[in-house]
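User: My advisor asked me to double-check a structure prediction for Amidase domain-containing protein before group meeting. I don't want to rely on an old file, so could you generate it fresh from this sequence?
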Amino acid sequence: MQRAVAVAPDPVLVMNRARALHQIPRDLRGLLHRVAIGIKDIIRTKVWLSHLQRTSNAFDSSAVAILRAAGALIIGKRTTTEFTLTNSGPDNTNPHGPNRTPVGSSCGSAAAVADLQVSLSLGSQTGGSIIRPASFTGVFAMKPTWNAISLEGQKSFSPTFDTFGLFSQHRGLAATCGRLCPRGR
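Assistant: Sure, here is a fresh prediction for Amidase domain-containing protein from the sequence you gave:
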């Protein structure tokens, strides 16, 4: 598949993190212990810069922090359309056919899950960038209620419409992530 990864994962960094997670006692492991997760390029992580950033990251976005606290293994950034403004953009290929598109600004996140590169991938939606790529690539998606997860650390296009969302290979994994969403906002 073409260009599913925006920022290639550092194998040494990923393996060191996986080993550190493995050392956590079983009774203290989070719901997403060692689940491989990709992150849409516009979402901040402590380790990888997005193509929109010029300085190092001092923090994870709120959504990445929730996943990391649950034991997720963040393995890299996924491509997005330029500034998340259009449906055209990087040469992402739908894993179900080289002449098909995964469509939408979260196309790299959906395509990476459909291509079995990661079990879960974080995306964002303003007007359909979670639900459309999921339907085009045949993966499960979850788009929480607006403002259920703070947009802190995400390049925002429309603060009144933007939400984090995720793509998953399995309905159960998406449901597990739903239990991680903060309540009562």
